[in-house]
């Protein structure tokens, strides 16, 4: 089972509110979730983000992959380190550090 940390849209038409959830990647966006780990309200100024840091760290340790938007929110809150770059962003010819070898 591939697990993702992603946004689940709530709120009325033209008034989005999101729950940050842990869900199976094969489920629909607003489908069944494993756990709710936070909320995101983009309409407030500045945007309001409420996170359950311990649970998010737990799921990331277990292999859950955040979506791009959730990853940005987690970086802004200091849960994910900004310095770590995904492989896709690495330039050609740059070596990837191997772990454990």
Descriptive key words:
2 helices; 101 residues
The number of E-state strands comes to 5
* Shape descriptor: globular
Question: What portion of residues is helical?
Answer: 10-25%
Overall pLDDT score? 84
Structural class by SSE content? alpha+beta
Distance between the termini: 27 Å
**Sheet with the most strands, sense and barrel status:** 5 strands, mixed
SSE pattern, N- to C-terminal: EEEEHEH
Placed side by side, the strands forming the largest sheet appear as 4-3-2-1-5
Radius of gyration: 15 Å
Number of distinct helices = 2
What share of the residues does DSSP label as strand, in percent? Answer: 25-35%
Give unreliable regions as ranges.
Answer: none
What would you say this structure looks like, in words?
With 101 residues, this protein is α+β, with helices and mostly antiparallel strands. The protein has two helices and five strands, in the order E-E-E-E-H-E-H. The protein has a five-stranded mixed beta sheet with strand order 4-3-2-1-5. A hairpin with a 2-residue loop joins strand 1 and strand 2. The model has no long low-confidence stretch (mean pLDDT 84).
């Amino acid at each position: 089972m591939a697990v993702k940390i992603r946004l689940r849209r709530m709120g009325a038409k033209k008034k989005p509110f999101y729950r940050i959830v842990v869900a199976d990647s094969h489920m629909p966006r607003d489908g069944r979730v494993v756990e709710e780990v936070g909320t995101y309200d983009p309409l407030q100024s500045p945007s309001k983000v409420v996170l359950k840091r311990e649970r998010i760290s737990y799921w990331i340790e277990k292999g859950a992959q955040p979506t791009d938007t959730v990853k940005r929110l987690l970086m802004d809150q200091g849960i994910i380190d900004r310095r770590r770059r995904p492989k896709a962003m690495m330039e050609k010819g740059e070596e990837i550090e191997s772990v454990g070898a």
